[in-house]
Amino acid sequence: MNKAHWAGLRTLVATILLFGSVAFSSMALSSSAWANTLTEVSPAVGSQLITAPNAISVSAAVSLLDQGNSLTVTDPNGRQVDDGSLTINDNTAVVGVKPLTVSGIYTVSYTLLSLTDDPLTGSYTFMYTAPITITAPSVSPSVSPSPQTGVIDTVATPAPATTVDSAATVTVWVFVGIATLVALFLLWYARMIWVQFKKSRRASAKKRGAK
Question: How far apart are CA 122 and CA 112, in angstroms?
Fold first, then answer.
């Protein structure tokens, strides 16, 4: 076999290898393009919610099997808060969620099965802030037994007297004390005037008798 034949054979082998590698790469790219992936989730990845969702849904690129899928939701303390009611609608899995009461990061974990691809497994998180509730303080009534029937009656505790009533009482007593002192002073002053008047009359009478 001459050199020309060897050169042609090498060219043929190189061409076959080239086309084989191109075909293999095309098949690999085609397989990757059609691999199962998530296309949509609700709530969105990393979203911050102030209204609690009543369901979680994840959608894949291909149709899902009716059995074998898993979709769970856990709260910041690791407790499962989905209600387990998983439903499959073509390429979407939906699970109901119990009422959320804890603020923090919630984790959605999923395993999705399709007929043509490997199981799609993963997780994502979202933030939920629970509303703040303010409750008014309650007054505990005192309990006293009824003297006739022995039945316990609830008696509301009376409110303490206000400082205004106390100040008014003090003011009244001050005025009463001042009025009493004034009356005693007037009586004493009138008595002193009467005594002086009697002394002056006696002195006048003695002068007239001496004359």
Answer: 9
Would you call 73 exposed, middle or buried from its count of C-beta atoms within 10 A (0-12, 13-18, 19+)?
A: buried
Kindly report, residue by residue over 10-58, the tens digit of the pLDDT: 666 556 665 555 444 444 444 444 568 999 999 999 999 999 999 999 9
Q: Alpha helix locations (H) across 149-162? A: none
Task: In whole angstroms, give the CA distance from residue 173 to residue 193.
Answer: 30
Number of helices (H), then strands (E), in the chain: 2, 10
The size of the chain, in residues, is: 211
pTM greater than the 0.85 cutoff: no
Angle at 176 between CA 172 and CA 181, to 5 degrees: 150
DSSP state for residue 46 in the 8-state scheme: T
